[in-house]
Amino acid sequence: MFAKIKNMYNEYPNAFKVLTLATFIDQLGSFLLYPFYALYMTERFGVGMIEVGYLFSILAMGNIFGVVIGGALADKYGRRAMVLIGLVVSGIGSILMGLANNMNTFYLLSAFLGLIGNFGGPARRAMVADLLPKEKRTEGFGILRVAYNLSAVIGPLLGGFIATQSYLFLFISDAVSSIITAVIVYIVIPETKPQMQDNTSEESVMKTLIGYKEVVKDWKYMLFLAVSAITLLVYMQMNSTLSVFLRDVHGFPTQGFSLLLSMNALMVVLFQFWITRKISKYAPMKMMAFGTIFLMIGFGMYGFISEPYLFFIAMIIITVGEMIVFPLAQSIAASFAPEDKRGRYMGMFAFQWSIPNLFGVLVAGLIIEHIGPNWVWYLAGLLSLISLIGFLLVHKITKERFSKEKKPRKEELLELTVTSIE
Prior knowledge:
By secondary structure, the chain is mainly alpha-helical. The chain contains 18 helices and no strands. Helix 8 (134-165) runs antiparallel to helix 9, helix 8 (134-165) crosses helix 16 and helix 15 (284-301) runs antiparallel to helix 18 (375-421).
């Protein structure tokens, strides 16, 4: 077993290994803080879920512009610089948010953090695509999710303890993790942006941004993102609405919710790589639809159950779905992208994460207050069903495109065989 792990470890370049470590440290800080935003705001400022929804909308609006600009600048100036800017700004912004005394200041800082702090997201995804060959990308994104979720095993448990002592320490801890990650990236990780052809003229910043037109024209990619966004609208409720719903409707304690998230993350750490390898032999869009079935069942269950042990069963089902859907989605996005527009394609991929955040939590808050809390989960099941059908439709439309990608590799192998015979 250890020999297998060692061989698997040796399959990846050192820069990717360091990027994985940096992701773990950075996300450890995020998971100390992010799951407790809703609880912090409702306790600190005495507000309800609608005001929490405003915060997520502000963060999402900043994120929309941040990932679009960051993706373009990653193609223009390189991945490393954008990652560093995002990390440093995130660190400073977290401390300032923890010191904010009123909601208006908190909202203003959230807008700034959402904009500049997200410059590095598309660059980090582009780095993975730069460093790994196409056949390794799904596994690579899966490994990053393992690092991400390993931090999520520790983060919520530690965050739940820290939150009972001081919420300010949560913000400071997030800032420290961002700065440590920035130092690692600066010292160890080289620039991964592919070198331009000698006969290719360098684009201006404005031309790089305008280059998003080419991404938008790729209507098959845009359709894939639209369907994915519906899935994300459902999934994002796990780290926002679910904690307040379980506390207010079922009296489920904060530490219990921390255990729920940690179990989710531990499952990803233990099974993500195995699942990623198992699904890699099947059509990617069909696997996206298959994974969405688990999200539909898991999230829908919360509208019908009230026993704590069932909360954990529903989370197990959700976790299986996310282990199938999310690494695969990033790999699919990278497969759509031409090499010279990889940052912008990944920027648009991050953009579709922002759209659900723009209104998802706010709408969930309105549904809870005006229709009923269980309706959030009834609608989550329905939206998952729509997304499932959408992925099957995208499979039919993109089947030829993905099969064409495989064809040159077969032809290349044939050519190499003929050459070796000669």
